[in-house]
Structures are given as C-alpha cells and as structure tokens.
Amino acid sequence: MEHTQNTLAEPLDVDGLPRAPYAQRTMAYNPSISSEILGQLAQSEDVETLRGVACNSNTPAEVLERLSHNKSRRVRIGVAENPSCPAPVLERLSKDKVKDIRIAVGTNSACPPVILERFAHSGNPTLQIAAILNPSTAISLLESLSKDPNQTVQIYAKFCLNERFL
Predict the structure, then answer these.
(1) Most buried of 61, 96, 127, 137 (most Cβ within 10 A)?
(2) What is the predicted pLDDT for the residue at 59?
(3) Which CB contacts under 8 angstroms, 24+ apart, belong to 71-78?
(4) d(Cα 57, Cα 116) in Å, to the nearest integer?
C-alpha cells in the first residue's frame, strides 16, 4: 500500500489544501501552520476559515490587511484581536463603524498607545474600558481614568491599577 501525503483522507483542492471546510478551519486555527498555507486559506469563502486565519499570529501582515476589509464582522474582529496585526491596520479598524471591532482593537496588547489614549479620552465608557483592560495601557492613563466622571470607568481603572501593583 502506497502512503499518500493526504493524511486527512479528504479530497484536495488544486492548491493541495483539503476541500472540506472543517479541515480548512482546523488548519486556519492551528498555531503551528505556516504563513504560506495561511495565505492560501485566506482565499476561502468560508467565514469561519477566514476568522481562523485572521486570529492566527502567523498570518502575514499583507493577509491581515486584506482580511481587515472583509464584509464579515467576525473576520474583522479576528484581525483586530490578532497580536501580530500591524499598527496601521489597527488604526483603521479603531474607527470601524462596528463597536465590537473597536473594542477588539482597544483590548489588543499590540494596540498603539495613541489609540489607547484616544479611546481613554473618548468619553465613551465602552471604549474607555477596552483601553483600561489593555495590559499595555500606561499607568498614568489608568490613574487619569480612575478619576473619570463615569463611576463604572473609575471602578475598572482602580481595579486594574490595583492588579498591576499586586
């Protein structure tokens, strides 16, 4: 019996990837998958496969840039959550119409300080809390937010300050 490379026992596309969406999804979320294969998977029309590619820290910057324009909010949230997402993409997504995408940008540890500062001073409690929850937010910004007029923002800021000093 001859051994084949297709260990998934699934039909393969012309690019050598399994055709079955569940197999492509599994590959897309795999943290050990190569950036080359992620680039191929990014051609999929399956939203869950694209979300997996968007979330994967091995996904190349140019693929994340392309996926950041996807019509699916789930895919754009995946890009916004990706710690390997380039700053210019995060900057654009920080202005997305969809609130959940802006929140994902604000909580991304790779979020540029200028965005965190903008969110912190936005007057929007949801964006302020996203910035507060970001581990990269400056202590001085947390101290400022601990005096915010919004009591919920104050509570979150004080909690995070206490957590950082424990």
Answers:
(1) 137
(2) 98
(3) 72/47, 73/98, 73/100, 73/101, 74/47, 74/48, 75/47, 75/50, 75/51, 76/101, 77/51, 77/101, 77/104, 78/50, 78/51, 78/52, 78/53, 78/54
(4) 21
H helices within 6-107, ranges in order? Answer: 21-29, 35-41, 47-55, 61-67, 73-81, 87-93, 99-107
Specify the pLDDT at position 31.
94
The per-residue pLDDT for 157 is: 98
Q: Per the structure block, which two tokens stand in for 159?
A: 């909690």
Residue 42 in tokens: 């990014």
Contact 76, 100 (CB under 8 A): no
Sign of the torsion formed by the C-alpha atoms of 80, 82, 88 and 91: positive
pTM over 0.70: yes
Cα torsion through 155, 157, 163, 164, rounded to 10: -170
Nearest CA-CA partner of 133 in 161, 113, 112, 114: 161
Amino acid, res. 59: T
The domain ranges of the chain are 12-98, 112-166
